[in-house]
Specification:
Layout: H1 2-31, H2 38-41, H3 44-61, H4 74-97, H5 106-124, H6 126-142, E1 149-154, H7 158-169, E2 175-181, E3 191-192, E4 195-199, H8 204-208, E5 214-217, H9 224-236, E6 240-243, H10 247-253, E7 261-262, H11 278-285, E8 289-293, H12 298-308, E9 314-319, H13 322-335, E10 342-347, H14 353-363, E11 367-370, H15 377-382, H16 384-404, E12 409-413, H17 424-440, E13 446-451, E14 454-456, H18 462-471, E15 476-478, E16 484-485, E17 487-489, H19 490-503, E18 509-512, E19 518-519, H20 520-530, E20 541-543, E21 561-565, E22 571-576, E23 581-582, H21 584-597, H22 601-624, E24 635-636, H23 638-643
Helix pairs in contact: 1-3, 1-5, 3-4, 4-5, 11-19, 12-19, 14-16, 16-17, 17-22, 18-20
Amino acid sequence: MKRQRFWSTARRVGLDVSLITGSLVAATFLQYNGHIPDAVSGRLPIVFAVIVAITMGGLVWVRSHRTMDEYVSVRDLIGMGKGLSVAFAVLVVANTLAPASIGIAWGVLVRYFVLGGMALAVGLFKQRLWRETLLGQARRAGADAPTRRPLVVYGAGRAGSAVAREVVESPELGYELRGFIDDDAAKWGMEIHGVPVLGGRHDLARLLGPDRCEIVLAIPSLEAEARREILGHCRRAGAHVRIMPGLVELLKHGSYVHQIRDVRVEDLLPRDCVELDESEVREQLAGETVLVTGAAGSIGSELCHQILSQQPSQLILVEQSESRLFFLEIELQARLQSRVTQLVPVVADICDRDRMEFVLKTYRPSHIFHAAAYKHVPMMQRNPQEAIRNNVLGTHVMASLARQYRVGRFVLVSTDKAVEPSSVMGASKRCAELVVRELQETSETRFMAVRFGNVLDSDGSVVPLFKKQIAAGGPLTITHPDMERFFMTIPEAARLILQAMTIGEGGEVFVLEMGRPVKIVDLARSLVELSGLRFMEDIQVSFSGMRPGEKLTEKLFFDHEKSVPTRSRQIHVAQLENGRRLDIDSFLRQLHLLTRSAADEKDLALRFMALVSGLEQAEEQAAARSPRTAPKPQVVPMTSVASGREG
């Protein structure tokens, strides 16, 4: 490596010496019209050596020889000019104060620096000149023009310019750059890399004409609402749109063309992308033992990937599905950049207290992320016993063991369906929130819950289902035309869970910023159009009716909760003004009694929902009291809660 760098620098220095020597010889011949006097020619070797040495000294001082030929820019040209200016100033002073030593005509000196500057500039840009002119023309002439796809770059800024340069210089990409689109009218008619700026978004249909152009949206800093509007214009113009990722991805990976991707459904969400303050998260997790339940699920697996990048000493993967855990371990092992983190896959049921106690006693985690849960509303409506066992009792097992073994932080992954629950699944997650909140009162562990909406592309969610139905030619099955949900991506959800963990002091229910709710019909339309098809023409929609437990809209806060901002603008706390204490032991006994005495699954679902409704009524009544007159929190007797009466 050092030898290669030495020879690369030596070649560059040798080229510069040759160029300035040639410039000096040419300047001398021009000064004397090709007839150099004998008195001058005898001293030229020494004078030339001095001038070349001083000039090279100036260039070395500005580190001109370290510039990579492939990436030279105007800044490098300015740096070279500074070096030449310093050398010229030194030579002027020397020629003035010590003419006997230098003794060169002023005309030679001036001509030398003009010719030398031009020669060095050509030498500096030689590779780009070769690539962009002679070689570029030859390669473009040899390309099979009829097979090249027409391309338009949306955004005539720095990112768009960089994309255009790579496309122009790399005909092997298979694109013919037609021009730029930009909403800044001052740029219309101008050219970038010889390619014109054609117009703005409202002219798309006219500018593209009948050609099926591909458009690259090259504005990484674009806000969500503007991005959605531009993508709508592009789709209506019949163009296939691809998109450049945000600035964070560009900074991480340092590329332009190779990061351009197809538009995804998350690009159409009505809010900006969620980013993570990794410094805080790393400070919490680096070198620690972290346990994730439901590790191979949609949220759990993404949490594991993101936690792994923070370099914990151990990552304990608790999962009931042996096959999914097997594949997750393979994925994570492939990402291990060093042996800093030890992966520990654990096949276990979180409801098995003895098994989970053995795990916590053996590994002593400092952080637990509890993502294990049953989440499908219709399925849990038909199987309430499992929703209660896994989501409520399993959470109590994990949380009580975390308290027993003094885990530092315990984060429950919750859902917006826990707010004013209309389903067994939502009610079970609300119970999990209450259990975690109550255990905080008697524990050194910092318990907290994180509540958010639907997750795009998670297992069994609507997006994978729609994609399968589109691939099959339709129809898309939607329960109700007015149904809407909050959406975020799996990586975003995991980022905010980790961020909330760093904020929590204990007892909080964090609510993630979800933007505006999205109608399921609009989501379906976007997926169809992203597939290059026409909604309600190529792909039809069938409305099947709402299923048991479903709501038209979801809420992120109860009416008796107040949204309190945190230091992260994308995370809020659902603050309860004046809550009631939950008698956990009595509550668990009531649950066991329900599961044993219910006549059937339907009866169990109804009685469980009545129990949770009673809890919420007591919560609302307590919150309605003025803080000045409210008594201290009291334990709510379960008989009162179950009937909805205040104890």
